[in-house]
Specification:
This protein is an alpha+beta fold. The chain contains two helices and ten strands. It has a single domain (5-144), classed as Cyclophilin (Beta Barrel). 19% of the residues lie in helices and 40% in strands. The radius of gyration is 14 Å and the shape is globular. The protein starts with a strand and ends with a strand. The longest helix has 18 residues, at 118-135. Strands 1, 2, 3, 4, 5, 6, 7, 8, 9 and 10 form a ten-stranded antiparallel sheet that branches.
């Protein structure tokens, strides 16, 4: 299985690399096994500096027990963490924390953006926020090995 995967936003000309966390390696492997995929990017409304995709098309449904994964609180976790939640059938979710969070929520964390790419993640997050809530520009995220 791959050691990393990427999230790219072609409209922003930004790509970041993600590596597995120590926890939930099975979830990382399952996620990477579903790549490549893409969707329209979104952003949290009130919970802070967090990008997300709710309906990310996946090849394989999650057969692991979601409730058995280690959960990571979004407020307490480092910038760059990636989570998934409520995966059903052949769609899933991907959340990336790029800054301050204001709402305590816990989901299975499975990856993090590599240290060198954190400034790019910050830039992407700010541009996605602006696109969603100001310009209405459509931003697409491509997730690949």
């Amino acid at each position: 299985m791959a050691d990393t995967f990427t999230c790219s936003w072609p409209e922003l000309d930004i790509t970041v690399r993600l590596e597995p966390l120590g926890d939930n390696k099975e979830l990382f492997d399952w996620f990477v096994g579903n790549l490549p995929t893409s969707a329209v990017q979104s952003h949290a409304v009130v919970s802070g500096e967090l990008t997300y995709v709710l309906n990310l098309p996946l090849k394989n449904p999650l057969t692991l027990q979601y409730e058995d994964f280690v959960k990571h609180d979004l407020m307490e976790s480092d910038v760059g963490y990636a989570w998934t939640f409520a995966t059903f059938g052949n769609v899933g979710s991907l959340m990336l924390k790029y800054g301050h969070m204001t709402e305590p929520m816990a989901y299975p964390g499975f990856a993090r953006v590599v240290e060198e790419d954190l400034p790019l993640l910050r830039q992407a997050g700010e541009e996605i926020w602006d696109a969603i809530y100001n310009t209405k520009r459509i931003i697409t995220v491509f997730v690949d090995k």
